[in-house]
Specification:
The chain is of the alpha+beta class. The chain is built from 15 helices and 15 strands. 42% of the residues lie in helices and 20% in strands.
Length: 508
């Protein structure tokens, strides 16, 4: 007899407001509105009231008004900032095809847009005779390795196996919730895209018998032409980010600098293979520099997927002497990109990014995210879930702050005679359960999820967006379009680089 399915819940949203749900500018406007309101009272003048009250009302509307999920003041700031960028043409990116080459190496530097312009793809030995591509962020002091993985899935297995796989994945993450762990971020990235059928056609041509009946060959060719474009494929990546500040002593012991950091990261990913296997995750490969560049290039230019898939399939032949699979790192970025207020155009494709702002309020099953990556023939979807492990000391401090805030708010409501809503009761209970779980040895994670939908026909963009938001609603998620920062959202959602969580507790 099968056991009952396990359900999951209890997500807590970080409080990013300066005071309650108000931002810093919003709180300043409320304070200014209060001062302006008192001016006519102190003066005892009706003419002053006629001047000051509209100003105070405007400030309150800006502070408490909402526009597409954002406060009015945040929306105005985003719009003004975007218009300034448009006027200065800072929202347009063109690759450095004519950029001067390095005088020392003769190579053309990497050319990436936006927040990932500072990234560099390094090369290091993987300890097994191969080469590993490491994404280095010199400003944040982080080093990221990316693995292409496969997993058996959850939808077609019984509830016991579902629960076991989820529990082992939770155990894998919990292993990094320690004070001395150098791993600062773990991210899972999945793409759902139409399958071009190139790999299938290449495999078929290599295994086709020379004496096969012509009728059978013709029927098989027709089947390949119809089945390839109708299929979809998924790519799943796991990125592991090491913090150079946390691993300072280990990096120094390994030689220091980028070489020492790469050696420490290789050591860390070597030790996690056992945990990944226990969680039913199989590492297909740790990406080389050309492999990392390929994942970036195919995200910016979806039509290049056919070319690279064909080349990768041909490279498996023993007599292949053409270009090796992957992309040169200096060609990883887009040739042309334009950041709009609500969309992002890149190399003939158009994308819209969303951040998950609300997780399901009720208990859900382990497969609740499945609707988000439904196969679509008119669009490709990307999902990045970024985890940041927290050490026991920091977790205790953060949860204590949350409990103190909610207890203070509850006491204030009781003193003022306000009724407590069911949502507020649930938040208090969730905070208490989380603190109990932490005290019992469970790990605490900060996490975020960002999605992107990409089309090659701009006329289908809004339809694809509507389908994504409908599927998100079916999953119990609340999405917010990342207005004014679509290039940032695309870098997080569509690229497996482990970006996404801010250092401080502030919103996007």
């Amino acid at each position: 007899m099968s056991s009952q399915p396990v359900t999951y819940g209890g997500w807590q949203s970080e409080k990013s407001g300066f005071m309650g749900n108000l931002s810093g500018p919003g709180f300043a406007m409320v304070a200014a509105a209060s001062v302006v309101t008192l001016i006519p009272i102190n003066l005892g003048s009706w003419s002053a009231a006629g001047l000051c009250l509209p100003i105070a009302l405007t400030l309150l509307v800006l502070a408490f008004g909402r526009v597409l999920g954002l406060s009015a003041d945040e929306w105005i700031l985003l719009a003004v900032r975007h218009q300034i960028a448009v006027a200065r043409k800072q929202n347009i990116f063109m690759s450095g095809a004519y950029a001067p080459r390095s005088q020392t190496t003769g190579e053309q530097p990497m050319d990436l847009p936006g927040i990932i312009a500072r990234l560099r793809i390094l090369e290091a030995p993987d300890g097994l005779g191969g080469r590993l591509g490491i994404v280095h962020d010199p400003m944040a002091g982080t080093y990221t390795a990316i693995a292409r993985i496969t997993f058996p899935g959850l939808a077609l297995v019984d509830t016991d196996k579902q629960s076991t796989r989820v529990a082992t994945w939770a155990g894998f993450l919990r292993a990094y919730c320690t004070e001395d762990s150098p791993i600062t971020r773990i991210a899972v990235h999945q793409r759902c895209l139409p399958d071009d059928g190139a790999a299938l056609r290449s495999w078929t041509s290599r295994h086709l018998s020379p004496d096969a009946p012509p009728a059978a060959v013709k029927a098989l060719s027709e089947l390949m032409e119809g089945a390839g474009p109708a299929a979809t494929t998924r790519e799943t990546y796991l990125s592991v980010t090491l913090s150079s500040s946390r691993a300072r002593l280990a990096i120094k012991g390994a030689g220091g600098g980028q070489i020492g950091a790469a050696a420490v990261l290789v050591r860390e990913i070597s030790t996690m293979h056992g945990g990944l296997s226990t969680a039913s995750l199989q590492v297909v490969e740790w990406l080389t520099p050309r492999g990392v560049a390929r994942t970036l290039r195919t995200a910016y230019e979806p039509t290049s997927q056919v070319e690279f898939a064909t080349r990768a399939a041909a490279a498996q032949q023993p007599d292949w002497q053409g270009t090796e699979s992957g992309v040169a790192p200096e060609l990883a970025g887009p040739a042309y990109a334009v950041t709009g207020m609500g969309a992002y155009e890149h190399d003939g494709a158009h994308s819209v990014s969303y951040q998950v702002r609300g997780w399901p309020q009720s208990e859900v099953h382990a497969t609740f995210l499945q609707p988000l990556l439904r196969p679509k023939q008119n669009a490709r979807r990307s999902l990045s879930i970024v985890y940041e492990p927290m050490g026991p000391r920091r977790a205790r401090q953060e949860l204590s702050k949350e409990k103190a805030k909610r207890s203070s708010a509850r006491y204030f409501r009781a003193k003022t005679g306000r009724d407590e809503s069911e949502d507020e009761r649930r938040e208090v209970e969730t905070a208490r359960r989380q603190d109990m779980a932490r005290a019992a040895g469970q790990g605490v994670m900060r996490m975020t999820a960002v999605l992107a939908v990409t089309v090659t026909d701009v006329g289908e963009l809004e339809t694809a967006c509507a389908e994504l938001t409908a599927d998100a609603s079916a999953a119990g998620l609340e999405l917010r379009r990342m207005w004014g920062s679509q290039d940032v959202g695309f870098a997080i959602a569509a690229l497996p680089l482990g970006q996404g969580l801010p250092d401080r507790r502030v919103g996007f």
